[in-house]
Amino acid sequence: MKGELFYRNGLRFSCMRCSVCCRYESGFVFLSEDDLSVLARTHGISVEEFTTLFCRWVPSENGLDENLSLKEIPLGGGEFDCVFWKEGCSVYESRPVQCRVFPFWDFILKDEKSWNRAAAECPGLGKGELHPFDEIQAYLEELRIHPPIRRIKL
User: Fold this and answer.
1) Model pTM?
2) Ranges of each domain in the chain
């Protein structure tokens, strides 16, 4: 039926700890106000110092403002690691909401084709634990109530 969400009966996903989502390709891990506060506190530093050491401002699609994202570490050859990837996630217990709810992001859940495209990259999609519809909706709501920090482009 048109308009029916393809994940109405839930989706299978279990993290395989392969780190594909944290390494190699350039990407953005946008931070909410809560993420920033928790990560700064975890590191025992101020929000300002954390932002200077571990974050960057990324232009948004509208070109008028910027979103706060974690930095990446260039590996050479066009590959990158998340600034907190050290043989695994060094901030796993305090990782940002974007990381906690992966792969249940709007653009991956847009349609089955988008889900399958993401599954071609992530070995845990379509396998393991069944996440019911209500849980997936809660993850999407979590992203909505914790939007990325945004500022007017300087």
Assistant:
1) 0.88
2) 11-152
